[in-house]
Write a structure and sequence with these properties.
The protein is mainly alpha-helical and about 130 residues long. It is about 65% helix and about 5% strand. It has 5 helices and 2 strands, in the order ααβαααβ. The chain is globular. InterPro entries: Inner_membrane_protein (IPR052937), UCP028777 (IPR031308), YccF (IPR005185). Keywords: Membrane, Transmembrane, Transmembrane helix.
Length: about 130
């Protein structure tokens, strides 16, 4: 079932979102000082392509630098990306068929809001990851 949902997601929403995140990642990597945000954009792009069967957890070794970087991200990009995910999630949840896809958009809100210090892991064995927290 996860594969079917991921294929439908890829066609209707995932490919476009991933391309947007990749474009943002390339722009961030061209500007040398924003490389950490560019790498985060590439991680989110991979997650946006295939979200079902994966989840976001906090990385146990993330420190104050991740927190400061997340504040900068929040001001310049995080709020807008999060509003986009919430808007699309609400719109998709308005239809019965779109509910799983709307929930996938809501699942992406935490990582689009604050991507640094988070890790994308498989939901098959999330407790195996050190520092696992919902």
């Amino acid at each position: 079932m996860k594969t079917l949902l991921n294929l439908i997601w890829l066609i209707f929403s995932g490919l476009w979102m991933a391309l947007g995140y990749v474009l943002a990642g390339v722009i961030c990597c061209v500007l040398i000082i924003t490389v950490p945000w560019g790498l985060a954009c590439f991680r989110i792009a991979a997650y946006a392509l295939w979200p079902f069967g994966r989840t976001v957890v906090q990385r146990p070794g993330a420190g104050a630098a991740s927190g400061a970087g997340n504040i900068v991200w929040l001001v310049f990009a995080g709020i807008w990306l999060t509003l986009g995910h919430i808007t699309l999630g609400v719109g998709l949840c308005a239809t019965i068929i779109g509910i799983p896809f709307g929930l996938a958009h809501f699942k992406m809100v935490p990582i689009s809001l604050m991507p640094l210090g988070r890790e994308i892991v498989s939901t098959s064995a999330p407790a195996a990851y050190p520092g696992y927290r919902w």
